[in-house]
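Need the bound structure for NAP, inputs here:
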Amino acid sequence: MKIFLVGGTGFIGTNFLQLALGDDHFDEIIICVNKRKPSVSSPKIKIHTPCRIDDIKTLKIDKNTDYIIDFAGIIKETRDKKFERVHHEGVKNLLRVAHETGARGFVYISAAGVDGTRDEAYMKTKWLAEEEIRKSGLEYLILRPSIVLGPDGDFTKMLKIMFKLFPFIPVIGEGNYKIQPIFVGDLVEIVRRGILQGIKGTFGACGPDAVTYKEFLKMIKEQLKIRRPLMHIPVRLVSLFAQLGGPLSPVTGDQLKMLLSGSTCKDSKIFTLVSYAPKNLEETIRISFLS
Ligand SMILES: NC(=O)c1ccc[n+]([C@@H]2O[C@H](COP(=O)([O-])OP(=O)(O)OC[C@H]3O[C@@H](n4cnc5c(N)ncnc54)[C@H](OP(=O)(O)O)[C@@H]3O)[C@@H](O)[C@H]2O)c1
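Answer from helper R.:
Posting the output first, comments after.
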């Protein structure tokens, strides 16, 4: 199978790439390289660069490509990366070239909570991207994970620094908002099996345990054997900094809103469909934070 991999240099994309390289079903992997270079090399890999999904002129997909896998995304807008352009326009562009070249399938990583009712730009543009994919006529697999954890993930790395260096562990508000993390290795395994088994549809892709953010931090503390206290930062204060923006602001207004809304899955059908059981949260934290 020949795949065109977008976002193959990011956290989830790199983990998928490593998995796909060890699987003989995937014999050619073309990576759309924007800024970062892939951290692995193999005779199976071909690099396509410059490649920006929000610039259709840079997208060239070979005629006999089977699947397009889109792991590209942003969590915060920058001067040259906007949600509408990367999530929505990017997917529209990829679908256009998919049709022109006759690709069969499309995989997309959306996010838990995306349902067409949310007004944060991240959530709204993920929904618009999903809708484009659903009406494309391609065989599609859309997965909606909550937080994805793994030793090489930015969120894990940020928490590791906090646990190592901070005299206390900051929690925004009471920390009672729920999350349902999945181990990155489990997420990419579902993608691999989903493609090979021809699974189609939109599915939640969360780990088995939904916990409050405060419980999550306590679980990490226990595993790392750290005694430092949690310190609650009032939501109003964080919100004020978010409105001011700039380097002093730890989160944007939208990120704060998404955090406080919680992030859990409504369904777990995908695991039955692909016959795979994801790791529980304790194991996920152990692998992510202790390796
Ligand atoms: N990590 C999580 O906890 C989580 C949770 C839910 C959903 N997701 C979704 O899962 C996907 C992957 O997340 P991740 O954590 O792996 O993100 P990541 O580490 O930030 O990687 C993002 C990837 O997208 C590429 N990219 C961004 N803009 C692009 C553009 N215009 N054209 C081509 N490539 C572009 C980046 O390459 P360059 O840096 O070179 O631009 C990078 O390879 C995203 O859609 C994200 O929203 C992630």
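Comments: The chain has two domains: 2-144, 147-180+206-263+277-291. The domain at 147-180+206-263+277-291 is CATH 3.90.25.10 (UDP-galactose 4-epimerase; domain 1).
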